[in-house]
Write a structure and sequence with these properties.
The complex is a heterodimer of chains A (about 180) and B (about 290).
Chain A lengths: L3 H27 L2 H17 L1 H4 L4 H18 L11 H11 L6 H12 L4 H12 L4 H8 L3 H17 L13
Helix pairs in contact in A: 1-2, 1-4, 1-7, 2-4, 5-6, 7-8, 7-9, 8-9
Chain B lengths: L8 H8 L11 H37 L22 H4 L35 H11 L9 E6 L3 E5 L3 E6 L7 E7 L14 E7 L2 E11 L6 E5 L5 E3 L1 E3 L2 E7 L14 E5 L5 E6 L15
Antiparallel strand pairs in B: 1-2, 2-3, 3-4, 5-6, 6-10, 7-8, 7-11, 9-10, 11-12
The chains are: A mainly alpha (about 180), B alpha+beta (about 290).
Chain lengths: ~180, ~290
């Protein structure tokens, strides 16, 4: 049986290998770089306490689910600060500072970030799970605890909004056929 | 003929959302330290709650004169029990996400009337309830709606011939409204029909989760039973084909975790379990339309 040292080693390896990806996922989900780190930190702390049980299953999926749940829960706990799921200013800062690419990556990310900020919380979660995490509609529905039809309709609405966003003007998500 | 694969708009979006190398991994040592603090404080909180529970049961037995702990009266509705002030000395709140070492955006607690005493505002009325639905722009009962159920006056169910909704102002000056729904009995497998409205309130003992819910009783169901992470089991009150439930947790917010969600059981008159489900935290613990979701 693995001892505590081995457990910590395994967990440490997981954090080093996957936490940056989780933070990226959380940033896309909430649109706030600092809040995203809080979300992932909290989810990982909870995962550590259950590591023996989840290690052999799908730890990344477990922590990602915890991030989603925690995100939804935190939004619920901030009723008087409720706002659209993305704050353009925060997103803008994140997307501008996340890369230093002279070939247009910054502009592209700023545009995508601004467009994501126009989505509702659910639409945004669907887009992030579908296109960042590459989950199927069924998997996305399972993570969000909603019906597949809800995912489909939210995804369609989100893509419509992204197409209509002036920052994108049909780039990246194309025009409806 | 071109062998170039057609790039779909969704592919473009995937590329645009790809992570870059600018994000550093979190510090594993810091995560582990945070987890250990979390476990330690949760242990203290559980011990505090257990101690208060023992004291409460003992005091109840003494006051009842039964001379036996087994005769101690149980609260008729533990959901309405606001934690006793003594809890404050033993029950330290579990670190909330905002208290993690790298927290920078503290979630705000919903302030809900005088601490630990509940709202002193007038109980919700049909009119004030409908006003909440109108403000949210939801299809809702019309002006002919009547009150169809009440839990201590603070939680009411309102319905006309087409829609029903519910409102509660136990801890708020203005009602919180449950999302209106069509006037039709849900199936026993419709888990969303049993979603709760969840908010954080401030009591004398600190922050606590406050849950309430209402709905139409599915055919064949006699009891809608909720179980919470603090160990409380609350049977909803049934009236006129509707059910209503309310509960204030005895443990601080943040004590919940995956797998410790709100549990709902639907029981037949004979006690058979018709559904047994744990609500999805977030999507099924935010049934209100007034704020927060």
């Amino acid at each position: 049986m693995a001892g505590p040292g081995s457990r910590d080693d395994d967990f440490t390896a997981f954090v080093l290998a996957r936490s940056a990806r989780l933070v990226h996922f959380a940033r896309m989900l909430c649109g706030d770089a600092e809040l995203a780190e809080d979300l992932v930190q909290t989810a990982l702390e909870k995962a550590y306490l259950r590591w023996d049980r989840i290690e052999l299953a799908d730890p990344f999926g477990y922590v990602r689910q915890a991030v989603v749940n925690q995100h939804l829960s935190w939004v619920r706990r901030r009723p008087w600060r409720e706002r659209p799921s993305g704050d353009a200013g925060e997103l803008d800062r994140y997307f501008r500072t996340s890369v230093a690419d002279p070939a247009g990556a910054v502009a592209r990310r700023v545009a995508i970030g601004a467009a994501l900020a126009t989505l509702t919380r659910r639409e945004r979660a669907v887009v992030v799970l579908r296109y960042v995490e590459d989950l199927t509609e069924k998997q996305t529905a399972a993570v969000l605890g909603v019906a597949v039809g809800t995912v489909k309709s939210a995804n369609a609405r989100a893509l419509d909004k992204l197409r209509a966003a002036p920052e994108l003007s049909g780039r990246y998500v194309g025009e409806r056929a | 003929m071109s062998d170039e694969r057609r790039v779909t708009p969704e592919d473009d979006l995937r590329v645009a959302l790809l992570p870059d190398d600018s994000i550093a991994p979190l510090d594993p040592a810091r995560v582990i330290a945070g987890a250990r603090r979390r476990r330690k404080v949760r242990g203290l909180a559980a011990a505090g709650v257990a101690a208060v529970a023992v004291i409460g049961v003992a005091a109840g037995g003494f006051l009842a004169g039964g001379g036996s702990l087994g005769n101690a009266p149980q609260p008729a509705d533990p959901g309405l029990t606001v934690p006793a002030p003594t809890l404050a000395t033993q029950d330290r709140p579990t670190p909330r996400p905002s208290e993690t070492p790298n927290a920078s955006t503290p979630p705000e607690t919903e302030t809900a009337g005088p601490e630990g005493t509940g709202s002193t505002a007038a109980p919700p009325t049909v009119a004030s309830c409908l006003q909440e639905a109108a403000a949210a722009g939801e299809p809702a009962p019309g002006s002919a709606a009547k009150q169809r159920g009440s839990l201590d006056g603070r939680l009411i169910v309102v319905a006309d011939g087409n829609y029903w909704m519910a409102c509660d102002n136990t801890f708020r000056p203005t009602p919180t409204a449950r999302k209106p729904a069509k006037l039709q009995r849900p199936s026993t497998q419709d888990n969303n029909a049993f979603a709760v409205a969840g908010n954080t309130i401030t009591t004398a003992a600190g922050e606590r989760d406050f849950f309430w819910a209402a709905g139409m009783l599915p055919t064949g169901v006699a009891t809608v039973r909720y179980s919470f992470v603090d160990g409380a089991v609350v049977d909803a009150e049934v009236s006129n084909g509707f059910w209503m439930m309310r509960h204030v947790s005895t443990v601080p917010p943040g004590a919940h975790d995956l797998g410790d969600r709100v549990r709902v059981q639907l029981l037949s008159p004979s006690g058979a379990v018709l559904n047994d489900v744990r609500l999805n935290w977030g999507t099924q613990t935010c049934a209100q339309i007034s704020h927060g979701c």
